[in-house]
């Protein structure tokens, strides 16, 4: 017996995702024998872009039952069944997490119609539910509503059951062995079993619920298991204190790195050594004095009105300004490399044309300063990095505005992304720092085709990822 499930959610990741609608069809392999469908009050606001996708708004769920109220019906209809969904890890883990928050254990065997379809009916360019149903002539109504998607999944699942060699494939999927090996004594088996084999970050928590370690991985479950096998003193002690593990999916390695960096700086976990230090950023800026002469200077970014370029220590700031002085024949005095002097006499920069000695007009000097500023601004490109999302139906985006990392988000592939305004609706703001700058610069060098240029405010060109 199978329970074929689809849910709609508030779209805040597994940990913070709240169900707004659920549909379950109990299927005996030939026909539907029972059904349960309900809107769900998530007890939080539904983001407007989720409403735009599903049509479910705050008003619709205001008088709907909470998950606690319908939990008995969900448990009853899914009891002694195999949990089936399209991209099953998403639906299953959201439901399991929701049940955990209300003190109920939800454990079911599960099957994924995406994985089954890839194995039993290979060759399609996309295995998203919508595109797969179109390719297989499966009618689908009320797309992105739980009942409509679940009903289409029932028809797809029946086709998969009737496919040649399906019995062997289904059996192999259901009897796959876990590599859990020796788990920490305080960690329950089901906690480990719920970890996905996907890219993301994971949190080791102690008995008090405190984050004691944050890590990133291409395969979360496999990486977590490697900690349990590591016999170093630090790893043994850390695993001994671990009583729970949380995770967040990233969809790709770059986002996992960025999410890990942000989580470490936010939580300061006991067993993380790297990236704990908050490096103070400095910004180079310009201003014009009463004599009409343009200056270049630097200060802490928090005190700079509009940074031309950002660095993470004063040494790099000074070296960069020295390079600008040499390249554009600027004055060390007016670039604040020398303070409280009548005229410049810098030992490395000796090509000033005399603005500090009254031998050059401000207009001529300012023209070169502006050229240096234009050079800095040319590096402040606005772009997104497009990569794999957490599911086959979404993309992950990293936003950089005027050279500064602004945040990341997950966008349904069906949503239009043609301007910065389109993107901002999906972006979770993040802080730019030394680590994020290095990570993004490295990714740009290795993956130039993942960059989409938005410098003019609209999409200039799209290079295939």
Description:
- This protein is an alpha+beta fold and 465 residues long.
- Helices cover 37% and strands 21% of the residues.
- It has 17 helices and 16 strands.
- It has helices spanning 13-16, 48-54, 58-61, 67-78, 88-101, 113-120, 129-135, 146-161, 166-174, 189-193, 220-229, 233-241, 253-267, 314-328, 362-378, 420-424, 434-446; strands at residues 2-9, 19-27, 32-39, 82-85, 110-112, 200-205, 211-217, 244-249, 282-288, 294-300, 309-311, 383-388, 394-401, 404-412, 427-429, 451-453.
- The strands form four sheets. It has a five-stranded mixed beta sheet with strand order 3-2-1-4-5.
- Helix 6 (113-120) runs parallel beside helix 8 and helix 13 (253-267) packs antiparallel against helix 17 (434-446).
- The radius of gyration is 28 Å and the shape is elongated.
- The model is unreliable at 461-465 (pLDDT under 50).
List keywords for this structure.
single chain, 465 residues, alpha+beta, five-stranded mixed β-sheet, five-stranded antiparallel β-sheet, 17 helices, 37% helix, 21% strand, elongated
What topology emerges from the helices and strands here?
Blueprint (H helix, E strand, L loop, with lengths): L1 E8 L3 H4 L2 E9 L4 E8 L8 H7 L3 H4 L5 H12 L3 E4 L2 H14 L8 E3 H8 L8 H7 L10 H16 L4 H9 L14 H5 L6 E6 L5 E7 L2 H10 L3 H9 L2 E6 L3 H15 L14 E7 L5 E7 L8 E3 L2 H15 L33 H17 L4 E6 L5 E8 L2 E9 L7 H5 L2 E3 L4 H13 L4 E3 L12
Parallel strand pairs: 1-4, 4-5
Antiparallel strand pairs: 1-2, 2-3, 6-7, 6-8, 9-10, 9-11, 12-13, 12-16, 13-14, 14-15
Helix pairs in contact: 6-8, 13-17
């Amino acid at each position: 017996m199978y329970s074929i499930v689809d849910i709609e959610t508030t779209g805040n990741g597994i940990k913070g995702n709240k169900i707004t609608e659920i549909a379950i069809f109990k299927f005996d392999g030939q026909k539907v024998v029972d059904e349960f469908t309900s809107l769900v009050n998530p007890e939080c606001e539904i983001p407007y872009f989720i409403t735009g996708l599903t049509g479910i708004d705050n008003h619709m769920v205001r008088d709907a039952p909470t998950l606690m109220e319908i939990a008995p019906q969900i448990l009853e209809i899914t009891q002694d069944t195999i949990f089936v969904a399209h991209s099953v890890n998403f639906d299953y883990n959201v439901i399991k997490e929701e049940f955990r928050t209300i003190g109920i254990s939800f454990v079911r065997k599960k099957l994924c119609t995406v994985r089954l379809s890839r194995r039993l009916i290979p060759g399609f360019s996309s295995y998203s539910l919508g595109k797969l149903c179109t390719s297989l002539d499966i009618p689908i109504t009320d797309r992105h509503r739980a009942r409509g998607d679940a009903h289409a999944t029932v028809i797809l699942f029946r086709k998969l059951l009737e496919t040649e060699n399906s019995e062997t494939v289904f059996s192999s999927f259901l009897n796959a062995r876990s590599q859990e090996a020796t788990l920490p004594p305080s960690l329950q088996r089901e906690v480990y079993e719920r970890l996905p084999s996907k890219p993301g970050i994971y949190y080791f928590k102690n008995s008090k619920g405190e984050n004691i370690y944050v890590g990133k991985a291409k395969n979360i479950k496999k990486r977590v298991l490697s900690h349990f096998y590591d016999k170093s003193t630090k790893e043994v002690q850390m695993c001994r204190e671990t009583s729970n593990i949380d995770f967040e999916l990233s969809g790709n390695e770059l986002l996992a790195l960025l999410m890990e960096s942000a989580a470490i700086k936010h939580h300061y976990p006991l067993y993380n050594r790297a990236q704990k230090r908050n490096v103070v950023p400095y910004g180079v800026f310009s201003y014009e004095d009463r004599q009409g002469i343009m200056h270049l200077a630097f200060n802490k970014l928090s005190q700079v009105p509009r940074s031309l370029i950002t660095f993470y220590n004063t040494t790099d700031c000074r070296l960069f300004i020295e390079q600008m002085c040499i390249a554009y024949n600027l004055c060390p005095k007016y670039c604040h490399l020398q303070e409280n002097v009548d005229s410049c006499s810098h030992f490395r920069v000796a090509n000033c044309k005399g603005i500090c000695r009254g031998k050059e007009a401000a207009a001529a000097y300012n023209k070169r300063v502006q050229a240096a500023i234009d050079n800095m601004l040319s590096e402040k490109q606005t772009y997104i990095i497009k990569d794999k999302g957490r599911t086959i139906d979404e993309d992950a985006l990293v936003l950089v505005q005027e050279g500064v990392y602004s945040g990341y988000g997950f966008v349904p592939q069906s949503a239009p992304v043609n301007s910065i305004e389109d993107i901002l609706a999906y972006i979770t703001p993040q802080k730019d720092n030394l680590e994020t700058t290095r990570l993004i610069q490295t990714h740009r060098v290795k993956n130039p085709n993942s960059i989409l240029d938005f410098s003019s405010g609209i999409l200039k060109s799209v290079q295939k990822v």
